[in-house]
Structures are given as structure tokens and as C-alpha cells.
Amino acid sequence: MLGDVETRSVSPVFVGRAGELAKLTDALARAGAGEPQALLLGGEAGVGKTRLVEELLAEACRREAVVAVGGCVEIGADGLPFAPFSTALRALHRQVPKELSAAAAGQEDELARLLPELGESTRREPSQHDEEGMARLFELTARLLERIATDRTVVLVLEDMHWADASTRHLLAYLFRTLHRGRLVVIATYRSDDVHRRHPLRPFLAELERMRTVQRIDLTRFNRSEVHHQMAGILAVEPEPAMVDRVFERSDGNAFFVEELACSIADDCPTGLPESLRDILLVRIEALPEDAQRAARIVAEGGSTVEYGLLLAVARLCEDDLIEALRAAVGANILLATPDGDGYRFRHSLAREAVSDDLLPGERSRLNRHFAEALEADPSLVRKDERAMRLATYWYHAHDAAKALPAVLSASVEARRRHAYSEQLRLLGRAMELWDSAPDEVRAELRPVDYAEVYPPCGCDPATTPLRYLDLMAEASVAGRLCGERERALKITKRAQRLAEAENDPLRTAWFSVQRSRLVSSLGRGDGWAELGTAQQLVRGLPPSAVHAEVLAEAASWGMVHNPGPGSLATAERAVEYARMVGEEDIELRARLTLGSLMVDAGNVDGGLTEMYAVKERAVALDLPSHVGRTHVNLPSVLEGVGRSAEAVDILAEGIELSRTYGLLDTEAWISGNLSESYDSLGRWDEAVEAAERALRIALSPKPRGYGAARCAVLALARGDVATATQQLEAARAHFGPHDPMPQCILPLGTVALSIAAAQSRVLDARAEFERAATAGFPPGTQRYAWPLLRAAATLEADTRGLPAAEPGRAEVLERIRKAARGLVTAVPVWVAHERWVRAELLRAAGEDTALDWAEAGAAFEPLDRPYDLARVRHRWAEALLQSDRAQAAELLRLAHATARQLGARPLAEDIALLAQRARIQLTDDPAPSDAAAAGPALGLTRREEDVLRLVAAGRSNRQIAEELYISPKTASVHVSNILAKLGVSGRGEAAAMAHRLRLFPIPVEEWQETSA
Predict the structure, then answer these.
(1) Sheet holding 37-43, edge to edge
(2) Which of 759, 711, 164 is nearest to 422 (CA)?
């Protein structure tokens, strides 16, 4: 296993670092026990990070761990996308090829973006890139590492993260967040002195600091004693104290500088110890033969590592002379052969930087030109996955715009193919910088078909029409959105839209307006409708085109979640028609899925579901991950909305498997949230909680986290945990944000907020929540969210009937509920059941409900397999039956109570137990009173205050209360005051009414019958 471990230190002894090495070996032991470890190792350049890692890797190999090291590759000032991961995975592929192939099975196409050795991709690339492309690659990489590390300890070291490209940083952060299984150690090293205030690694480190699973180790410089031990090891003799003092003073304890100074002493440097750090690095290089110095300069400018064949082509020496020059540089510990034996690198990057900085400006550009020419003449000199980026970098630093522009554009295409959107954006920025400098004849030869993918043809042939500057801006706007640089993408989009307008190009202007809508929405600046409206105006009256179809598809999709109704349905139909006319199947599938959902909302349930099922089957057949994910989110959601929860669960289970296969973690979070809702409906609450918590844990973006939090709130409230429900409600609102209001968010969260306020006896606050949620009305398609809200509001009014504080405004609220209920669709059984429930609650609020009203609601719910809703209806049905048919009432209460206890629905179980106790009905064979009935009102009152409230509700005065409880009248008065404050009522009468209305205390059956009569 030691073959892939490169040793770069010249010191034969390992000095100090006992504490740091102990932390690393402890992490190795923990990983061996199955607990993944994430570590950051920082320190200034030359302080000894590499030597410390070498010691750890030696120990790991002694423990038979698999070791893989990858370094961030710097070419000039550029980093190669995912370079350290590609190198490390390549090392794993050499050491455990069978295990890696087994772990990657089924996902070779996707993982080949990082490890080309897995084969060329055969999967159809989508014409529309989405945010999940990079996330999918990240999840599959994490899963690959976990699988390889199942039966063996794997140590993955990523060096020089200060040079890392943005995509590498994002992938590492993802691994640190999501690795929870496997015998894996991931170590990232970086130079702390390079991380200035604006360095891109700085926010990355700050993010990792907040992760409790990441351990950070900072290396400090050596003290004098450690410098002494290091020098003794290098010189093989005991150094003079004066010389140790001088080296310690000159090096300031930096391990690398100590090595260089010690080597100068060992080599009897004629000029003595150099005076500056730069001189320390250059003095030994200048002592090399001229050809060796030339080779060092070439390697310094070529990048972190230069392949031998490329070095031979650029050096323009005969091979024997080059080998002798390299032998001299390697013998002097200036250069090292790479572990794979294919090239050379500097022993320490500080030496490379010093040599590179010493190059003259003309010399630097000439060397870059030679590198580019050699690579163009023989592309096989470097690995295929590095070729485009390195050629682009060499030509750019050679200051040859004619050669650099096409090379940079080709590199941007390669970056996009690898989902390295940050690097694609940087390269596109470089291409836009070069655009005006490149000759006209060069630009005239460039074609959109080769370099521009996201931008529709707009009536021109991309194979024959010259590439335009607007095409580059289109690519950059999408790349910025996909890599998270949305502010920059929005600036590019606005500028591009103005340019397209100036050129009187409505299709391109409309396309940029769609991109602007997406960016405005994702940045929380609005809901994006104004921009979509502009796009629709621009394409109106134009012939069918891909842009036209996309504008209509986006508008229909927006309407589906914000304003479902006839207008959105018509837009979706036109989107499907236009997409078919122009042969854009990706757009067609999106539009058909939207159309199916809107058809269901409009009442055509069977037709809509048939359309959605057809889209699902087509997406799976074409192996389109984004469409597969979308269909397995939307279709089950619609099925749940029409009461077909069991059918939804089957598709959701299939969706979870597919999303895991494709690595669609955000999609899996959406699916888990939907699964939680369907499990809730079916009475599988423990599974519902587990699914909601998983959605919260794995979601990458705010909205699926918001949905997961909302589901947690609903379930916590149903089980009587009001505090948790309140916390999760606030979390959900924070995740959804205030700038993109959607009925599917507003109405369910309003229902939860109303129910929490009702549970805390805050009647007026509960009404205010209803008003806020209902302000926008209930457009077609919102019935699945509207019925529960109306039911919760009606239940509140029924429960607070007779409470003086609830009387003002009560009639208006009831009328608003009735009016809203009359306007909602009842096209499927579940909506009919909710309508009957709301109607019965409204009658109860007026004191006019009968057993027949509740029997109708119960009959509607009985065949629907929604046990919690049925139990709540049976509770009220039994209450209405007590005076006429106690036997049936008793049976209904027992059924409802059994359901409540099975679900863990404590508030419902308590209400049923109180009603049964009042009616002297035994719910179980156990004659003892239930814990729920004995528990009391749980309104924040103490036990003594509960006793006082019970007597207040019975009409006792303070003196009577004092006599009965053996306390003074003054103490009784204090208790009453505290009770009024906690209940939020103004007097004893309101407190008594609340206690009676909420049935807080059992009363004798004779008194109950008198009250009912």
C-alpha cells in the first residue's frame, strides 16, 4: 500500500508534533471502528503539514488501510476542476480496482466525470441543465467512498486546498456534511498564510468550523529545541549551538526553511547562509548546472506537475541532456518524480513559486506558448480529462487571444460536462474578456453547436451561424445559477437582456427574462411572475419556437403552484402543443406533467393522472434523472391530494429508490416530505415522523427543508407537543421565506398556526392566523389545503361557543368559512368527506348539529383509510349521540379512543376520555381512570391553580374556594388572578366559560345532561 504514498521530506527524523499526530491516529482508530472522520490540517507554507501527513499515512499502511492522496493542481493561477478527487480516485482504482468497480456499478457514466477510467458516458445529456446535476455527482461520490470503506479503512488526503477550484471545495464540503457511514478518514490540508480576507477558501473554512463533525488541527512553527533536533537529523552530527541559534533566527522555526538552511550548511554553501527567504529557496537552485536550472524553470511554469513527455517537448534538449539535468535537480532535492513515475514536480511548492516569480515577463509567456504548442502537436502528452483546461490556461498566459479564445471555450464545455459550473463560469468570463481581442476571422469560425448548449437556436442553425457574445452571456447566466453565484448571474442576465432588446431580438430577450425570473425567485427578491409576464408578452404572436415553448412551460409551472386555475391550464396546453411542434421533448415532458396536475385541480382527475403516469413512464424509459425525480415528487403529491394515499406511497417508495440510484438528494428530500404526508393520512405516524426528519436532514435547498419542518409540526401538534410544533412552524416559515408566497405553503402553515393558537386557548390569535391564510382566497386547485384550514377554523368557533371573549367578530368568521366552503370543489370522495366535516363543525358552532350530521361525515370518511380524521369525526358523532343512543355512542368512543392511543394522538385521546368520563362510559376493560383524564387541563396551570379553576367553573366565590381548599381568601384571590392572566381572559365568567367549553374538568352526568338540555 505504500506505493502511492509520496515522501518529500529530506529530514530522516520526525520532530515534534506528538499531540497533532496523536489526534490523527485517534481519528484513524475511530474510522477503523466504523465512525467516519473529517479533519482540516492548516498551517503556513513550509511548516510541516506534508511531513505530518506522511507519518500518518505510514501508520495507516501499517494498519493495512488503503491510502489515496490527491493534490489541488495549479497551472499558473488556475486550478483544475475536481483535480484532487480525480487523483485520489485514480489511486483507489489502482489499489482496489474490483472493489471500486463494484461500488460504482450502475453509475459509471456519472462517476466518469471524476474518474474517466470508468468509461465514456453513454447516457443522454439533458438539454436543460439543472441544479441537481452537480448535487447528483456529489451524492454518488459520497456513496462510492462509503461503499469502498465498508470492509476496509480508507484514508483520503486532499492537499493544498488553498489552490482548490470552487467545485472541489463544494464537493469536499458536501462530503464533510453527509458522510455518516464507513471506515473513512478524509483529511484536507491548506496554507493558512495564503488565506487572506478575500480568499475563496475563507468562507469555506468558516462553514466547516460550524460543523461539529469536522476536527481542525493548526500547525505552529518549531521552537529552538525542535529546530536543533531537526538539524541534527539532517546533518547527522550535533550542530553547534551558535549555528542552531542562527538557523532558528533566520528560519523563525519554519520546518522547510530549516531544511533548506541545513542543506546549505551541509553543501558548504560558499556565500554562507542566505539573507532572505527568497534567497534561501533560490540559492541551491542557482548552484545547479544550467540545463538543470532550465528544467526547473520549465517545471515551475508548467503547473504543479509536468509530464515527462511534455517537459521533453518544451525543453528542446536532447533526451540524454534532459535526463542528466533532471537527475541533477532530483539529486539536489529540488525536484521529485511523481508517484506514478510519469512526470516531475518540485519537492515543495514554495520553491516552485520562487522560481516562477523569478521568471521574466517575456520568458513566462514564451514558456506558456511552448507548452501550448507542444500540447496541440501531441494531445496525448497529458491525461484527457486535463487536456482542455491546461491548453486553455497555457494559451491564455501566452497572451495569444486568437488561440486562447477557442481553447478557453472548449475548456468551458468540458467543465460543464463535469458539472464544474463554477469553473465554467470563470472560463466564460475569460472568454468574454478575450472576445474583442480575438481576430474577426477567428470569431467567425466559432459555432454555437460546439460551445453553447443552454441557449435555444431562436430560428437560426447553430451549426452554421457564428457564435455571438450573447451566446456566451447565456451560458454564463445559467452556469452562475447552477454553481450558486446567483448575484453575478443576475447581473449578467440583466446586461444580456438589455443587449438583446437593443438588437430587437424578442426571442433572446424573452429567454433571458425567463432566466431572470428563476434568479429573482431563488434570491428571494420576488416570485418571478413579473419577469415571466414580460417573456410571455415578448413571444406573443411569434411563430412556434423552443423559446416560446419554454416560456409557456415556465409560466404554466409557476401557475400550478401560485395560481392554479383555467388560465394556467390553458397555458400548459399551449406549452405542450408548442414543444411538440418544435420537437423539444424535454420541455414537452415538463409541460405535460404540469398539465396533468392542473387537469386534476380542475376536476378531471382520471385524465390528469393518466397524463402524469405517462410522463413518469416516458422519463424512466429515457433515463432522464431530472424528469424521473420531478415525476416521482409531483404525481404522488397529486394522488395524495385526491385521497389515494396508499397508491402515492407505492410510487414514493419507487421514487426514493430511483433518487438514490441517480444521487438526487434534494429530490429524495421532497419525496420523503410527501411520504410523510401520505403516511400521516394512513395512520402510520411513526414512519411519517421518520420520513419528515429525513427530509430535514438530507435536503440541500430551503423549500424541501421547509416542507419537512411543516410535516414535523403537524405530527408534533397531533401528538400534543405544542412546543415542538411551534418551533418547527417557525423553522418552516424561515425556510420558505417571505418573498415567494404559494398556496401550498401558506394554507398548510396557516392551518398549523391556527391549531397551535387554539391549543393554547389564544382564540383571537387563532382567528388572526385564519384571516392571514385566507386573505388571498382559495383558487381552483387549492382544495386539498383549503378544506383542512376551514375545518380547523370551524372547529375553533365550535369549541369556543359561549365564550364571551370570542363573541366579537364570531358571526363574520363563520360566514366567511361558509362562503369559502361553498366555492370549493368536491369532485373526489376525500373532498366530499371534508365538506361534510366542515358543515358539521359549522352546525356545532351554532349549537345546531345533530347525530345525523356527524353520521354523514363519518360515513364519508369510513372507506377512505384515514384513521385519524375518522377518529375525530367519531368523537363528535358520539357526543351528538349520547342523549339518543348511548350504546352506539359508547362503541364510537371506544373505536376512536383505540385509534388515538395507537397513533399517540394524546390531545384527541384526552378529549375522548373526558367525554367518556362525563357520560360514565368505560372505554376499556380496565376500571381505573385513564391517565389522560386524570392529567388535567395542561394550560400552563399548577396543580393548585387547576383545583381553583375547577371551583371557579363551578361558580364558587373566593371565600368558598378558600374554605374548600383550606387556604386563606387572599391566597385564593391571588390564584384566581394568576389563572385569569394565564388563560388570557378578563374575568371569572370568561374563565368558567372556557373551562366548560373546553371540557377541562369532568362533571357529574346529571349536571352534564342538564347543561346539554
Answers:
(1) 66-71, 154-159, 184-191, 37-43, 214-218
(2) 164
Q: Is the pLDDT reported for residue 626 higher than 90?
A: no
Q: Which residue type, as a one-letter code, is found at position 3?
A: G
pTM, entire model: 0.75
Nearest to 188 by CA among 155, 148, 224, 160: 160
Q: Which position has the grid cell 358571526? A: 811
d(CA 693, CA 724): 13
Query: For the segment 130-188, what is each residue's pLDDT rounded down to a tens digit?
Result: 667 788 888 889 899 999 999 899 999 998 888 888 888 889 988 888 888 889 999 99
Count of beta carbons in the 10 Å neighbourhood of residue 24: 26
Q: In the beta sheet, which residues pair with residue 41?
A: 189, 217
Long-range contacts of range 815-821, CB-CB < 8 Å, 24 or more positions apart?
816/774, 817/790, 817/793, 817/842, 818/842, 820/774, 820/777, 820/778, 820/786, 820/790, 821/790
Q: How many CA atoms lie within 13 A of 576 on its CB side?
A: 14
Which has the closest alpha carbon to 597: 645, 620, 643, 565?
565
Instruction: Give the list of residues 6+ apart from residue 813 with CB closer than 8 angstroms, or none.
Output: 767, 770, 793, 797
Find residue 188's DSSP bridge partners.
40, 158
Q: Which residues contact 828 (CB under 8 A, 6 or more apart)?
A: 605, 642, 643
Contact 156, 66 (CB under 8 A): no
Q: Which residues pair with 75 in a beta bridge?
A: 78
In the chain, the amino acid numbered 435 is W
| Dihedral sign (CA 735, 520, 636, 670) | negative
- Rounded to whole angstroms, the Cα distance separating 348 from 296 reads 12
- What 3-state DSSP class applies to 215? strand
Question: Could you tell me the CA-to-CA distances from 839 to 339, 733, 801, 825, 850 in Å, in that order?
Answer: 78, 30, 16, 14, 11
Tell me the per-residue pLDDT of 491-518, one tens digit each, with 9 for 90 and over.
Answer: 999 999 999 999 999 999 999 999 999 8
pLDDT in tens, 201-245: 888 888 887 787 888 988 888 888 888 888 888 787 888 888 888
* Residue 357 CB neighbour total at 10 angstroms: 12
Answer for the pair 441, 454: CB distance below 8 angstroms, yes or no: no
Strands (E) across 169-263 are located at: 184-191, 214-218
**What angle is formed at CA 755 by the lines to CA 914 and CA 710, rounded to 5 degrees?**
125
Read off the C-alpha cell for 298: 520549465
Q: What are the backbone dihedrals phi and psi of residue 844, each rounded to the nearest 5 degrees, phi first? A: -65, -35
Cα-Cα-Cα-Cα torsion 682, 685, 687, 688, nearest 10 degrees, comes to 80
Q: How far apart are the C-alpha atoms of 859 and 843, rounded to whole Å?
A: 17
Say which residues have a Cβ less than 8 Å from residue 438's Cβ, sequence separation at least 6.
401, 402, 404, 405
Task: Count CB neighbours of 970 within 10 A.
Answer: 10
Could you tell me which of 735, 734, 736, 774 has the C-alpha nearest to residue 754? 774
User: Rounded to an integer, what distance in angstroms lies between the CA atom of residue 104 and that of residue 141?
Assistant: 9
Q: What is the DSSP letter of 41?
A: E
3-state secondary structure of 683: coil
What is the per-residue burial (b if ≥16 Cβ within 10 Å, else e) of 916-936? Answer: bbbbebebeeeeeebebbeeb
Grid coordinates given for 448: 454555437
Q: What angle do CA 580, 583, 587 make, to 5 degrees?
A: 70
Reading the block at residue 884, the C-alpha cell is 339518543
